[in-house]
Amino acid sequence: MIDTQTANVESAGLGRSSRRDRTITQVVPVTFTYPVHFTEHLFDPQQTLLRDILTGPEASGGQPPRVLCVVDDGVLAAFPGLEGQIQAYFAAQPGLTLVAPPLAVPGGERCKSDPGQVERVHEAINAHGIDRHAYVIAVGGGAVLDMVGYAAATAHRGVRLVRVPTTVLSQNDSAVGVKNSVNAFGKKNWLGTFAPPHAVLNDRAFLTTLEDRDWLGGLSEALKVALLKDAAFFEWLEANAAALAARDREAMDHAVYRCAELHLQHIAGSGDPFERGSSRPLDFGHWAAHKLESLSNYELRHGEAVAVGIALDCTYAALSDLLPEADWRRILAVLRTLKLAVSVPELWSGTQDATNPTSVLSGLNEFREHLGGRLTIPLLTGIGQPVEVHEMDHDILRRAIALLEDVQAQASSLPLSSPHTQGVL
User: Fold this and answer.
1) Are 71 and 139 in contact (CB under 8 A)?
2) Could you give the C-alpha distances from 299 to 110, 180, 303, 305, in angstroms and in order?
């Protein structure tokens, strides 16, 4: 006798047949659009750019947008009237509500290494009712923008972030991208999100008070992207390196704009803006840079570390017969003209052993772990001609480190020969 109830259930697909493996493939097409503006005197009440950004088509509910402003304390020290200027700007805009005086946070990597700073921003977002239709404006260098961006991206699953970068490196590189992060477990950028900003507002006036090391250090990212993607831009940097070192503002304006443009083109056109693969082409020179920053307890600025990392990877490529010697010499000459070190004690001091966490060579595995998959390092076969490799010979790296120590020791020119080149260069 057939159990009609069971039969009916099975015929409805709720019996044995329900145990069949089935799949629903979901496709979620998402397009992110955000402007990157280049301007001056952003917080002048007569300057309408910020107001226009905050009251644009995405403003909803008919209520004045609520704004929380977080500012790098180093910027406040360099511009003593900035806090009052920000408050005066919002007071002069009837369509905007500044929910509190600007929140000051420490600048530099210390803010990314202190979990309490993220908590402070979260507390302010909560206390002042900043929701997904409100805005957090972050004003500062790359580290502050990273930290505030991480806090904004993790509050309410993401509140709108407007970045106002104040250093060369943040204006030409880190602030125009889609990443936010803080440091954890002694590793750089271990916690983070991919969250595109609502807008990026580059105010060139903020660059005028930078120390030389910050003015020049940020140019290492311009050199990096030129070497990877634009030989003509490298030639321009080569021709204008002395002017840039002398703080020529027009030269810097072009360097920042072209560098930002190349970064944005890569993010939009690489097919992997959120780094799902094993390759990070724009992180040329960065495996060593991140480790050097950590080894220096972040006394070494990111741009300075990237300059050393570029020098190391270019020297390795030259010693490995990938990069022509003439190109290697041109690259190091630009670094020297920009007054950027090609070697620092953290690079060559201690045991050069990849298993030793105090050795720069241990940065290779940390770099691989950060992205996952197999090790992928961008190198050069020529200026504007990148290539990816999946292993690096530690003996050649040690020779490259020793050679760069020699180069750094010579104040006026690159060595024509060195015992460490062993005839390769």
Assistant:
1) yes
2) 10, 21, 12, 10
Q: What tokens were used for 223?
A: 């050199």
**CB 103 within 8 Å of CB 124:** yes
**382-410 pLDDT tens trace:** 999 999 999 999 999 999 999 999 999 98
Q: Which of 172, 234, 238, 165 is nearest to 203 (CA)?
A: 165
Tell whether the model's pLDDT for residue 69 goes beyond 90. yes
Q: What is the largest CA-CA distance in the chain?
A: 100
Query: What stretch of H or E contains 385?
Result: strand 385-389
Work out whether strand 377-382 and strand 385-389 pair parallel, antiparallel, or are unpaired: antiparallel
- With 0.85 as the threshold, say if the pTM is over it: yes
User: Which residues are CB-neighbours of 388 under 8 A, at least 6 positions away?
Assistant: 279, 281, 376, 377, 378, 379
Q: Which helix (H) or strand (E) holds 104?
A: strand 103-105
DSSP per position, 350-415: S---TTSTTSGGGHHHHHHHHH-SS--EEEEEETTEEEEES---HHHHHHHHHHHHHHHH-SSS--
Q: Which residues of 134-167 are buried (b: 16+ CB within 10 A; e: fewer)?
A: bbbbbbbbbbbbbbbbbbbbbbeeebbbbbbbbb
Q: DSSP letters of 176-222?
A: GSSEEEEEETTEEEEEEEE---SEEEEEGGGGGG--HHHHHHTHHHH
Dump pLDDT digits (tens) for 299-342: 999 999 999 999 999 999 999 999 999 999 999 999 999 999 99
Q: Which of 11-20, 321-330, 354-363 has the highest mean pLDDT?
A: 321-330
How far from 202 is each of 98, 162, 415, CA to CA, in Å? Answer: 21, 11, 40
